[in-house]
Amino acid sequence: MSLSNPKKILIIKHGSLGDIVFALEPILAIQNKFDNSVIDLVTEEKFISLFKKIKIFDKFIIDNRIGFFSTLSIITKIIAGKYDLIIDLQNSKRTNFYHFFIKIFSRSHINGSRSFVHDRYVIPPQGTESPMQGLFNQLKLLDIDKIDPNFSWLVSDKEDQSFANKEVVLVIPGVSKSGKSKQWSPTKYKQLCSFLESKGYYICLVGTKHDIEACQPILEHCKNIINLIDKSPPEIIYRAASKSKLVISNDTGPGHIASLSNVNTLWLALDNSITKSNLSFRKNSKLLLKKKMEDLSVDEVQDYISKNKLLDKVQ
Question: What are the tens digits of pLDDT across the range 16-42?
Answer without folding.
Answer: 999 999 999 999 999 999 999 999 999
